[in-house]
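Morning. Coffee machine broken again, so started the prediction first thing and wrote up yesterday's gels while waiting. Chain of 110 residues, entered below exactly as on the submission form.
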Amino acid sequence: MRDLIIRHRGGSLDERVLGKLWDLSRKAAASVDDGNCRSLLSTIESYGAQLFSESGHLKFARAEMSGAHFLRLQILRELDAFHMRLLQLQLEATQDAAATLAANLRPARR
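Came back before lunch.
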């Protein structure tokens, strides 16, 4: 998804790129059972819908940057948060596995 957003500037209707973004987002959501991840991906889809629309990006314009650029930055920020959440989930799973292994290796008390 990151490469898609970096390669495509947005700011106009592009159903092909939007469809690809949504497809990747839905595949990512299906691969992880976490509400926070699904929420981040939903936000990415919403921003993407505005970015790759005829005029939805215009309401995000700032004095210093276009609405399309702002949306691209927001999507990249959400993707970073998604990646961090995946790392957190991976760390928690590793810690749980290590604790289970340690508990199974302890000698039984008599």
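The chain has a mean pLDDT of 95. Going to sketch it on the whiteboard this afternoon.
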